[in-house]
Amino acid sequence: MAKKLRALIAVLLCVCLTLGVMSTAAAKAPVDTYGLDRYIEKALAEKEEIKDTINLGINKPKPVFPKIDDDLSDHTGNALTKLISALWQYLEAFLNYIVASIYGIIPKNNNWVDIDDYVSENFYAGHSEFLDAPIEGSVWRLGYSQKSLIPDDFGKRPYIMGGYDIGKVTYSTYDDIKVRTICIDDGSGRGVSAFAVIDTVGFANTDVRKIRELLKDFARENNIVSINIGVTHTHSGFDTQGIWAAQPEQIVKAVSANLKGEKLDTSVDKHLLEVIYTRTAASIREAFYNMEEGEMYFAKKNAAGYFSDKSDPSIFIEDIYRFRFAPFSGGKQTIIANFGAHPETVGLKTDDNPGDVLSADFVYYTEQVINKAGYNFMYFQGAIGSLISANRFLSNDGLRLNRYEQTVRYGEEIGYFILGMTLTEEECRTQVADARRESEGMSQSDSYTLWYEGWVPVSERKLPPVFNVAFKEFTYILDNPLIVTVGKLGMANNIMLLDKDNNICTVTEVGFIEFGTDVKVVVMPGETAPELIIGGSTLTAEGSARGKDFVYPALVRMIDDCDLLTFNVMNDSVGYIVPDNDYGIATLRYIDGELTYNADGVLSFGSTAASTFITEFLTLVREFR
User: Fold this and answer.
1) I need a labelling partner for 414 at 20 to 30 A (CA). Which of 131, 149, 262, 456 fits?
2) C-alpha closest to that of 342 among 215, 171, 511, 163
3) Is residue 305 within a helix (H) or strand (E), and if so which, with residue range?
4) For the purposes of burial, counting CB atoms within 10 Å of the CB of 426, is it exposed (0-12), middle (13-18) or buried (19 or more)?
5) Closest of 606, 526, 600 to residue 56, by C-alpha
6) Count of CB atoms situated within 10 Å of the CB of 459
7) How far apart are CA 294 and CA 249, in angstroms?
């Protein structure tokens, strides 16, 4: 009996060892693949030095003027550059003081919770371990769904638009406002991830968690480990944040409620939010039930002519990235596109555009082209910075069009571009191009050009079924007095907390995704400056307003063994994420004899948003790689 028992134990040990070897082959322990430790340690050591010294409490505005020698000691520019930078920093401190003095008068928002009392709910961290290679026999699985988000009573009562003018009411629409959804996994059994993207300008983490709450039981029952809500960032959709609905009477009401110790409602339309919550949750359920097995392909192509950066210096990511999921059933394929461009054309009021007609902007018309070709369509917004826009002039080609017509043509042309990425010029002409559209264009303008002229196809590669996803939640101290003022007045729906030092904090999320083994994604909650991803002069001392190097190199230099994409304005809306060393409510630079200016910091959560978010992202990567 003893011999039989020992034999059985030996067999069990062998099985355990074998399984252990098999699992470590797929899920490797982190070994600092990218050498991130040295970057993170260096950044944390320098962070307090680069942080803006204006760190304001709730009711105690205090200007702290920078010391020129300290702030500009490593600036490599000339004396005039240093002088202008110094003057700008004094002006910056003064502007902060003025705004802080105003918000210091506003009573505390009673909705705010002490950070020690805050309980995180409905956060999804993703996978607990990452795979390095597919599990034997595993395959990609993907399901798609979409829903209209236009309420049933639209046109019968006023709805506020979000993106441009405060209080702009809309009763009509050019097209549809949707949520598009995919559920995806790699067949490894580690769990499904859901991604929904809404045609709107922004969506707070508070509201993301409301949708997750509706799906809590469904997610638990179906092993959904990650639920993520992004936006296309259209500037002609509904106001889903409350910022654009903030009328004077709302401000008076907010101050009165604060004084009385009452809870404060945000300006956002509650009925609209309920429609978005329920329909987005329904779309995620439907996408899950639509999941089927198939193959995933990836391609990218330079599309620099279709984007422009109105800021100076001009820095933007030039590629359009395309995923294509082909189900084994032979059913409808799904195209997932990723690129950075503001959908902002239709929402602006001009002489030839009313600006008050609802629209998903170019996204809707790109989708129409791709749907007509027989595909589902999903769009993830890229690193759009503050002023990276759709370059409509290439698709206009001299035609006399109003802004809406320009949007239609731009969206269509982007759709053709995405469909034709891997085709030859002749295949684009015969299989993709709209001959009637091209003929009309050429007849109306001598300068009209065909989008596929001189076309060079790119290759498409099949991705192995590995899908890794991880997210991290964290708090960030707000030090932009304009944003704090918005928070005090309850004009936005973001989570707001108070720490032990009376600082106002928010809770937000970053994420890290891997498609296959060589396509990785940076997930950020705001509008990321592209130079943080691909590099640029504003990361350097000589090219920045503050005269210091940014604490990190570009992410592509640290995570350098892959195609590195960016999914932006995902799971929150925290405004512009600009390099700390170039942050400012009014940024002034004097470089190589030229004076440049921008105001990106006005809509940023704070002076260290970029370094903080990237540190949290790299820490997340370091947990798994």
Assistant:
1) 149
2) 163
3) none
4) exposed
5) 606
6) 9
7) 54
3-state helix, strand, coil in the chain (%, to 5): 35, 25, 40
Q: Are 421 and 306 in contact (CB under 8 A)?
A: no
Strand partners, 381: 339
Range among 17-26, 84-93, 156-165 rated most confident:
156-165
Annotate 315-384 with DSSP letters as a single string: ----EEEEEEEEETT---EEEEEEE--B--STTS-BTTB-S-EE--THHHHHHHHHHHTTEEEEEEE---
Q: What is the pLDDT of residues 498-532, one digit of tens each?
A: 888 888 899 999 999 999 999 999 999 999 999 99
Cα distance between residue 556 and residue 567, in whole Å: 15
Task: Measure the CA–CA gap between 340 and 298, rounded to whole angstroms.
Answer: 17
Computed on alpha carbons and rounded to an integer, the radius of gyration of the chain in Å comes to 25
- CA 496 from centroid of its chain's CA atoms: 20
The string over 296-324, giving b where at least 16 C-beta atoms fall within 10 Å of a residue's C-beta and e elsewhere, is bbbbbbebeebbbbebeeebbbbbbbbbb
Output the pTM of the full model. Answer: 0.90
Tokens describing residue 59? 């009711």
**C-alpha triplet 260, 483, 165: angle, nearest 5°:** 100
Instruction: Look at residue 317 in the predicted model and tell me its pLDDT.
Output: 97
- Residue 590 makes CB contacts below 8 A (sequence gap 6+) with 77, 80, 81, 84, 85, 596
Q: Within 10 A of 622 (CB to CB), how many other CB atoms are there?
A: 18
